[in-house]
């Protein structure tokens, strides 16, 4: 009885991963590798099965293939984002940059193309789990003297009036707000929002930070909350 209780407790402490893919060999490989490294793995081979399993198991991270037999992976992602902020790693054979951008704009946290190296994939999985834990512990509503960010509802207001942000603008702002007072490197933002292949495209950030400042800062030319650390990255400060 004691051994069973300890076993149940150990299982409860394991990170819950939902792997969604219609290729049996990939499901098997990921299940074996993740179980061997202490993850609690649930698998699904269809979009409908993924949505059902996500609701039943409340995973802490989801690995999602785009090419599913019944529901397109983008539809599954949209369905998930309707009720959960769980980190989602897209795992797909699609290498076109447009698919990567679409997935990240739709709410994916990372994009891994097939074939992939297991060690790199596991590193990305661990990073997604860490981000998810930071999200769970973060303050849901962050107020500054200029604007308010509701992390739970993904809404931004300025003077009580809703501010429209594009999905990419929200992705940048959310990452900075969730790392309040911390320097977030250019590479980290680019990788998180646009994907690993955009890690050096710092011109993307200048454009989007300028847009965010115009929409949110009282004086965009002298920002108080969305700060640039020259040559290193950006920082959000509340006051």
Task: Explain what you see.
- Helix content is 46%, strand content 19%.
- The chain is built from nine helices and twelve strands.
- Strand 6 (141-143) and strand 7 form a beta hairpin.
- Helix 3 packs parallel to helix 4.
- The relative contact order is 0.09.
Short structural summary:
The chain contains nine helices and twelve strands. It has helices at residues 2-13, 24-36, 47-57, 73-81, 97-105, 118-137, 167-178, 186-193, 202-216; strands spanning 16-20, 40-44, 61-64, 88-92, 110-113, 141-143, 148-150, 155-158, 161-162, 184-185, 226-229, 233-236. Helix 5 (97-105) links the parallel strand 4 and strand 5 (110-113).
């Amino acid at each position: 009885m004691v051994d069973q209780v300890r076993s149940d407790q150990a299982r409860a402490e394991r990170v819950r991963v939902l792997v969604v893919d219609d290729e049996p060999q990939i499901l098997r490989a990921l299940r074996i590798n993740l179980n061997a490294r202490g993850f609690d793995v649930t698998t699904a081979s269809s979009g409908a099965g993924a949505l059902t399993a996500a609701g039943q198991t409340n995973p802490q991270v989801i690995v999602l293939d785009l090419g599913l037999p019944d529901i397109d992976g983008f539809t599954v992602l949209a369905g998930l984002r309707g009720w959960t902020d769980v980190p989602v790693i897209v795992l797909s054979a699609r290498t076109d940059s447009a698919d990567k951008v679409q997935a990240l704009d739709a709410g994916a946290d990372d994009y891994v193309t097939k074939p992939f190296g297991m060690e790199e994939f596991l590193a990305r999985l661990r990073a997604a789990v860490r981000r998810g834990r930071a999200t769970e512990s973060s303050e849901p509503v962050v107020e500054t003297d200029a604007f308010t960010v509701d992390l739970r509802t993904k809404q931004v207001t300025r003077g009580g009036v809703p501010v429209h942000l594009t999905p990419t603008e929200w992705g940048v702002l959310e990452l900075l707000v969730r790392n309040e007072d911390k320097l977030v490197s250019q590479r980290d933002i680019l990788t998180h929002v646009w994907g690993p292949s955009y890690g050096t495209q710092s011109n993307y950030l200048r454009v989007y930070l300028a847009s965010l400042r115009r929409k949110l800062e009282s004086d965009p030319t002298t920002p108080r909350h969305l700060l640039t650390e020259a040559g290193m990255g950006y920082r959000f400060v509340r006051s």
